[in-house]
Structures are given as C-alpha cells and as structure tokens.
UniProtKB/TrEMBL annotation:
GO terms for biological process: methylation. CDD domains: AdoMet_MTases. GO terms for molecular function: S-adenosylmethionine-dependent methyltransferase activity. This is Class I SAM-dependent methyltransferase. PANTHER family: 2-METHOXY-6-POLYPRENYL-1,4-BENZOQUINOL METHYLASE, MITOCHONDRIAL, METHYLTRANSFERASE. It comes from Sulfurisphaera tokodaii. It comes from the Archaea. Residues 87-175 form the Methyltransferase type domain. Keywords: Methyltransferase, Transferase.
Length: 230
C-alpha cells in the first residue's frame, strides 16, 4: 500500500514508514498517517461540531438546503467511485465509505479531530492527514475519487482539481458535491460561512481545463458533479 504514497514535499517514494527517499520523516499516530507539511487550519465551526457532524449537522443541513438526505447523496457518490483503490478528499468522519466498495479505502482530511472519529467508527479506512492541494499520492494511482461538500471552501479549486486529475487513473471516475450559486439558499449559506461561491459554469470550466469530462446535476443549493478521466 505504501507504493501509492509520495512525499508531499518532493514527490519521492517512501522507503519505509514514513521516511521518503530524500529523508523527510512523517509520523503515524493513533492510526492516522500525518503527511501535512504546514499547519493549515480547518474551519473552526466544523471542528467544534465534529462529534455531531455525521449524526445531526450534515443530515439536517443537507435536508433543508438540498431537499435530499445526506445518506442519499453520499450513497449516490459512493456507488459511482467504487474500485480497488478509492480516495475521499475532505473525508471528515468517512461516511462515504459505508457505500463505497474498495479494497484500499483512503480518507484524507486536514482535521485530526475528524480523522480520529473516522478511525474509531471505520477502522478499515486508511486515515491520511494531508493537503488536498498537494496530494501525497503517486500519479495515476487511484481508481475513484470523491470530494463531498468541500471544494467550495478551497482557496484554489483549480489546483485541487488538477491534483485529482493527476492521481486518478485513466478511465476512472470522480465525484464532487459543491455549494454553487444556484439559489437564495446557496447565497445565504455563502454569507454565513463567509465564502465566495461560484456558478456551475465556473466549475465546469475548471474540470474541463485540466482534461476531465464532466457532468452535473443541481440539488438545491448544491451541485453534484461527476467527472471522468479519459
Ligand atoms: Zn521527501
């Protein structure tokens, strides 16, 4: 499995757990592989509500902003990206892995607090603390990628999508559910979260720019994007 991983600093292979060819050393604590190279802060509010994220926050929040249930959207995404090696970016508690069929199932997040919950609830999922803008994985190493409810929070969507495209194998799929400029609810959410949100077209352009084929479906304030690497 460590074949899939690359040093987030220089992209070299790991010669052992977790020392890269150039000698950078990373730690694994409580089953969480920590490959974060800088101290990136997660959304404060999310860290506070982490213990009730999966049971209350996401189900309630999505129902009123999308009209669909959290499990419906997550299942739809999970079934699409099933494959041997699957990566969920911004995985949180790793809920999607209830619906993904995978042999190596990896959840990436910057929040140690969320990854700890993931590891307690779903011990089979490989928990990786890392930066989505600098994915610690080899080129074309992954069979399916999801990024649920996260891309609208990123400082650079283009870099994140370019990274998804880089690590995804040819002929494989990705999914992303993004808060987009759809209606008054999305504007309202953007205001209370202090986010600058974009149109569906903005994201389509980015997916296409990096070479991914993209399709979408609006779900209330959110848009469910499916992408594929030709
Ligand atoms: Zn290194």
């Amino acid at each position: 499995m460590s074949d899939i991983f690359r040093c987030p600093i220089d992209g070299s292979k790991f010669i052992k757990k977790w020392v890269c060819e150039k000698g950078h050393t990373f730690s694994e604590v409580d089953g969480i592989i920590d490959l974060l190279t800088e101290d990136i802060k997660s959304e404060k509010i999310l860290d506070i509500i982490a213990p009730i994220y999966e049971s209350v926050w996401a189900p309630f929040g999505l129902l009123i902003t999308s009209g669909k249930s959290y499990s419906y959207i997550t299942r739809k995404a999970g079934e699409m990206i099933s494959g041997t090696i699957v990566l969920d970016i911004g995985t949180g508690t790793g809920k999607i892995f209830d619906y993904v069929k995978c042999e190596i199932c990896m959840g990436l997040d910057i929040s140690y607090k969320f990854l700890k919950i993931l590891k307690d609830k779903r011990p089979n999922v490989v928990a990786v603390r890392g930066n989505a803008l600098k994915l610690p994985f080899a080129d074309e190493s992954i069979d399916g990628i999801s990024a649920m409810f996260v891309l609208h929070m990123f400082p650079s969507v283009l870099v994140a999508v370019r990274e998804i495209n880089r690590v995804l194998k040819h002929g494989k799929k990705c999914v992303a559910t993004i808060l987009t400029k759809n209606n008054m609810i999305s504007q309202f959410l953007a205001t209370i979260w202090g986010l600058k949100i974009h149109s569906v077209d903005y994201y389509i352009k980015i997916f296409e720019e990096v070479g991914l084929k993209v399709d979408y479906e609006k779900i209330g304030a959110w848009t469910f994007f499916t992408c594929a690497k030709p």
